[in-house]
Protein: Phosphoribosyl-AMP cyclohydrolase
Organism: Immundisolibacter cernigliae
Amino acid sequence: MPDFLDAVRWDERGLVPAIAQDAGTGRVLMMAWMNREALAATAAEGIAVYWSRSRGRLWRKGETSGHTQIVRELRLDCDGDTVLLTVEQQGGIACHTGRERCFFQRLTDGQWVSDELVLRAPNTIYPAGGGHE
Amino acid sequence: MPDFLDAVRWDERGLVPAIAQDAGTGRVLMMAWMNREALAATAAEGIAVYWSRSRGRLWRKGETSGHTQIVRELRLDCDGDTVLLTVEQQGGIACHTGRERCFFQRLTDGQWVSDELVLRAPNTIYPAGGGHE
């Protein structure tokens, strides 16, 4: 395994949070998790590969939807426990709800209010059902 | 406690990752953690209040350094387990190393390389030592 993986402070589950930011718009698209294997694959393949905690396996973002994230930059924070990806979001949709990004709920008058549009119906993105790929 | 706190999917430690993004530049500044009390305080006070895992107490970002984060937007992601803050970073420095942001290491030829400048010496930010406030 390459050295750069040892510089990461993996948590007690062997994971690190990974933030994906759109290279063009600067919008923060989503946050997911990576283990050593996912980060190594992301660096090697140049596309975002996360660790799916719910399915217990590597998750190549877009493997079902086609909404792949091409990685332009891979960054680590000061204390080595968070990764930041700058990505080109294929299809312009990062969220399994069919929105551009996952952060579509804004705190407004003490409530989370969805204020961003669904660009594509989820059942056309994931015909076999599921979601979150 | 207000309702919006119940919509958050707190992890087994009662925490949620909180990403701070600069409202002006769009740069992702840092990632820290919040518990219920921290998120409630952030919403009530309009400044970023995190939970310091190392010190086991609330941490009003900038309480030592003056590098307070004024919150413009508070967002929650689709599955309720990550918060995104859009902030005005006072002093233009979010990182305890004296850099604009914590993500100053970029993966370059298989190594993490620091490619962002120290804007202010940490010992002038934290005269009493410490760091990370």
About this structure: Chain B has a mean pLDDT of 94. The radius of gyration of chain B is 15 Å.
